[in-house]
Amino acid sequence: MAGVNSSHFDQDESRKELARMIILHEYPLSIVDHIGFRRYSTSLQPLFKMVCRTTIRKDIMGIYDHEREKSMHEIEKNRSRIAITIDMLWL
Prior knowledge:
InterPro entries: Cuticle_assoc_protein (IPR053031). One of its GO terms (cellular component) is nucleus. GO terms for molecular function: sequence-specific double-stranded DNA binding. It is a single chain. By secondary structure, the protein is an all-alpha fold. It has one domain. The protein has three helices and no strands.
């Protein structure tokens, strides 16, 4: 017999996951304004209050700052030299 799982909705955690989804899939910030996306999100969790582009941008920058700090901390712990390079394709 299947049981019903008790779940707890967390607005802040949902916002973080929305920001991570946008980062991971390189979606435009305007996705939060798309009516189809809003309807879909509401159908999954009616309690989720959709944020505006400015708010999701701040959330994404907060994630970036946190990850940058973690990276800098790891680099500072390293006693060796580090060379960081990137490939840039110019079209």
